[in-house]
Design a protein that fits this description.
The complex is a heterodimer. By secondary structure, chain A is mostly beta strands. Chain A has 3 helices and 20 strands. The longest helix of chain A has 15 residues. Chain A is globular and about 55 Å long. By secondary structure, chain B is of the alpha/beta class. Chain B has a domain of about 160 residues: P-loop containing nucleotide triphosphate hydrolases (Rossmann fold). In chain B, about 35% of the residues lie in helices and about 25% in strands. Chain B has 9 helices and 10 strands. In chain B, the strands form 2 sheets. Chain B has a 6-stranded mixed sheet with strand order 6-7-8-3-9-10, with helices on both faces. A 4-stranded antiparallel sheet of chain B has the order 2-1-4-5, covered by helices on one side. The two termini of chain B are about 30 Å apart. The chains are: A mainly beta, B alpha/beta.
Chain lengths: ~325, ~240
């Protein structure tokens, strides 16, 4: 692990918070590829064979990180991307460019550690290209402060090439959200497969916006986008899932489940399906409402109280 | 003893249950038989106390204590359980979590329950109780859950529905197992193989107990008469 000189303390603080929240000790492991950003500084970098990481910080504070993975590279241990902010207020702007070659197999574990801030705007823009026959998994987990002062915007544009597979899991279920705006726009080539899953737990006056777009441009491409929001108290949540069937035998499914608990909750979902090829097939499922009565009563008939049953169901949905 | 006294229940202006009285003594196997729509499942839901099944009149007693106004949870804590005809699905919950309800439980006991319902624990403990399980698999998981609850009274609502015909022996075996463990079974069924395993049955028609007595005789009467009797039943459409 290359800890950037002068930033040892920030590195250690971020890693300590991460380890406390996840019990995962791999960030200090020298055989694990890692990118650790604190505020507008790259404080730790570690690469592995076949993977190249370049970082640059512009004068205006924008942190630019390029990740390139060579063709035929298999990275057996997940690559960790850790972004944190240790000041009380401010803005963090990040730009990631991923260029992933053909026949690559890699898993990214991204964590946003924003537990110590009072007011922060965290903006992350990513572009990712996934080469032919590659298999890429991206798991993104957020830890925010409990006073709701974090505003996270994460905008991702991707291209998934022929026969490649991409799966994404975006989870903000363990801490307060604050305000979050997630946009993911993916283009799929022939036989490409994508599976997007986002789960968010809104509390108090959290504001949640999710937009997921699947552009099924390749023949026989397929994509699934599933969003689950558990909205409590005065949470406002708005989810848009879009799928475009633009090629023969393209198949897309979008699903949004918003479960509400609280009289001041405001949630909505808009599914958009557009078929531009007669052989494409798109489906969607959406539900907005309370926890299903038959689920509650099934568990209550086993001795759980209504609150215990609701917690059991929600924990499952957000797991 | 669990006792229903002159239970009346109506929905959408239809009288579904029209003054039913029943007795279920401890450690016995009872059948509630009858055609579709006569109100058999409704009786089960009323005993369990489901939210849409509050009675208009009558009382339910458990060991002479009135439980008519108790919640589902309170009834469950007193030892009443329900094997659902079509059990609900749960996303993100494994079979193991579902069976234990996240409480500490001896793994051997869980494995024994799964083996009793012909599910291999190695294959099923980490499966999710979601829509990827077939109807039959889900029903078997529910049966295993009821075994682990060790209830005093188990209402089995159409225990064979959704399960392949080859598994009928398994259901009968589980009924024997539960009876031997001291559970009173209240089996809602229209399948004669299952009804014949009961000791005493109530034949329901048009929301009333039409006949009651030794199960074999009730089943015999039901088979000969009930398809053509012409009574009007409301429960199914309500």
């Amino acid at each position: 692990m290359d800890i950037v000189k002068g930033y040892e303390e920030e590195f250690n603080q971020l890693v300590d918070i991460y380890e406390k929240n996840t019990e995962d000790k791999s960030l200090r492991n020298p055989s694990v590829a890692t990118i650790i950003v604190s505020g507008n500084k790259v404080v730790g970098l570690n690469s592995v064979k076949g993977m190249y990481i370049n970082s640059k910080v512009r004068n205006d504070g924008l942190v630019m990180i390029d990740v390139e993975i060579e063709d035929n590279t298999v990275i057996p241990i997940p690559v960790h991307l850790c972004t944190g902010f240790l000041e009380k207020t401010g803005e963090q702007i990040l730009k990631f460019n991923y260029n992933i070659g053909s026949n690559v197999r890699v898993k990214f574990k991204s964590h946003c550690i924003l537990t110590k801030v009072e007011k922060l705007h965290h903006y992350m823009e990513s572009e990712m290209y996934i080469g032919k026959n590659s298999h890429v998994v991206y798991e993104d987990e957020h830890f925010h402060d409990e006073n709701g002062g974090v505003f996270v915007e994460t905008i991702t544009k991707m291209k998934v090439d022929e026969n490649a597979y991409f799966a994404s899991k975006f989870y903000e279920t363990k801490t307060r959200v604050g305000r979050i705006n997630v946009v993911m726009d993916i283009e799929l080539k022939d036989n490409a497969k994508v599976n997007l899953e986002s789960k968010i737990y809104g509390q108090k006056d959290d504001i949640i916006d999710i937009k997921e777009v699947l552009r099924l441009n390749g023949e026989n491409s397929s994509g699934i986008a599933t969003s689950t929001v558990f909205a409590t108290d005065s949470t406002k949540a708005h989810v848009i899932n879009e799928a475009y069937g633009n090629a023969p035998y393209a198949r897309g499914h979008i699903e949004c489940n918003e479960i509400v608990k609280g009289s001041n909750v405001s949630v909505s979902t808009i599914p958009v399906l557009k078929v531009n090829n007669e052989k494409a097939e798109l489906t969607h499922e959406a539900s907005v409402g309370r926890i299903k009565q038959d689920q509650l009563e099934t568990l209550m008939s086993k001795g759980l109280t209504e609150d215990e049953a609701a917690e059991f169901i929600v924990n499952g949905l957000l797991s | 003893m669990l006792r229903l006294e002159n239970i009346k229940y109506s929905k959408n202006s239809n009288d579904i249950i029209k003054g039913i009285s029943m007795k279920f003594e401890e450690e016995k196997v009872y059948g509630i038989v009858g055609n579709n729509g006569v109100g058999k499942s409704t009786i089960g839901y009323i005993i369990m106390g489901l939210s849409d099944y509050t009675v208009n009149d009558g009382k339910i007693f458990l060991d002479d204590n009135d439980i008519t106004d108790l919640s589902i949870t309170e009834r469950a804590k007193k030892g009443i359980a329900l094997l659902w005809q079509e059990p609900a699905r749960f996303e993100g919950i494994t079979v193991k979590n579902y069976l234990t309800l996240n409480k500490k439980m001896n793994i051997k006991e869980i494995e024994e329950a799964l083996n009793l319902v012909n599910l291999d624990p190695d294959k099923y403990l980490n499966r999710l109780v979601d829509k990827k399980l077939s109807g039959g698999e889900r029903k078997k998981v529910e049966l295993a859950s009821c075994i682990l609850l060790k209830p005093k009274y188990l209402i089995m609502d159409e225990p064979d529905s959704g399960i392949d015909i080859m598994s009928l022996d398994m259901i009968v075996g589980v009924m024997d197992y539960l009876k031997n463990k001291g559970t009173t079974l209240i089996v809602i069924t229209h399948r004669k193989e299952i009804a014949r395993k009961c000791e005493y049955s109530y034949l329901i028609c048009a929301g009333k107990v039409f006949l009651e007595g030794e199960s074999n005789k009730i089943v015999e009467y039901y088979e000969k008469t009930c398809d053509t009797c012409g009574h009007i039943n409301y429960a199914e459409e309500a």
